[in-house]
Amino acid sequence: MLMDKSTYEIMTPESVGLTASALVLGKHSGRHAFKKRLEELGHELNEEMLNRAFERFKALADLKKEVFDEDLDAIVTDEARGEDKYKLEHITVTCGSFAVATATVQMEINGTPVRTAELGDGPVDSAFKAIKKLTKSKAKLTQYNVGSITGGTDAQGEVTVRVEEGGQTVVGKGSSTDIIVASAKAYIHALNRLHSKQKRLTDAV
């Protein structure tokens, strides 16, 4: 369709009052279509970032029927964060009406893999406790918000957290179709931003 729209379009967008056709991305969309859509949205990624973003897109497309522009924006935002001290490898949570929530978290800290498990008052609480234990962070969580990037039960959830330590406050964001994963990403993003902010202040002294 990118090369010859007449192959798939039985009528032009203009004939029904539209200015252009909208290419819907899904699990069968290729790398070229993905790259073109990012460019249309104003995102320019280098080859390495594009490859990582495309892998994220394919994984998301396996979970969702359609991938919306807002989903692509969230993917690019995650990939544009650069090199971080803390990275989430994977997280597993068990919980239920008759079970104590337990989170097993594996991370990379400065390139070194670390892992732990913690109990909590719920899946998010146990995940945050595990992350806090691994990072040895003394930051206080002051705000936690959950929203939806798009509609539908398969929508990506977006979590925003605010943490504070030593008079420094930062905001972290994370997104995923799994709200626990999104929460962990947001918390780690905030801790990375806090670390970077503290490092800049220390270097300036």
In short:
This protein has 205 residues and is an alpha+beta fold.
Task: Provide a descriptive summary of the structure in words.
It is a single chain. By secondary structure, this protein is of the alpha+beta class. The protein has two domains: 23-79; 86-204, 2-Layer Sandwich (Double Stranded RNA Binding Domain). 37% of the residues lie in helices and 28% in strands. The chain contains five helices and six strands. The protein has helices at residues 31-40, 47-61, 69-79, 123-135, 179-204, and strands at 86-96, 99-109, 112-120, 140-148, 157-165, 168-176. The strands form two sheets. Strands 1-2-3 form a three-stranded antiparallel β-sheet, with helices on one face. It has a three-stranded antiparallel β-sheet with strand order 4-5-6. α2 (47-61) packs across α3 and α4 runs parallel beside α5. The radius of gyration is 20 Å and the shape is globular.
Largest sheet: 3 strands, antiparallel
Distance between the termini: 57 Å
Tell me the CATH superfamily of the largest domain.
Alpha-isopropylmalate synthase LeuA, regulatory domain
DSSP strand tally: 6
Category by helix and strand content: alpha+beta
Top-tier CATH class of the largest domain? Alpha Beta
Low-confidence stretches: 16-22
Rg (C-alpha, Å): 20 Å
Beta fraction of the residues? Answer: 25-35%
Number of domains: 2
Read across the widest sheet, the strand sequence of neighbours is 1-2-3
Work out the helicity level. Answer: 25-40%
Average of per-residue pLDDT values: 83
Helical run tally? 5
Tertiary shape: globular
Indicate the CATH architecture of the largest domain: 2-Layer Sandwich
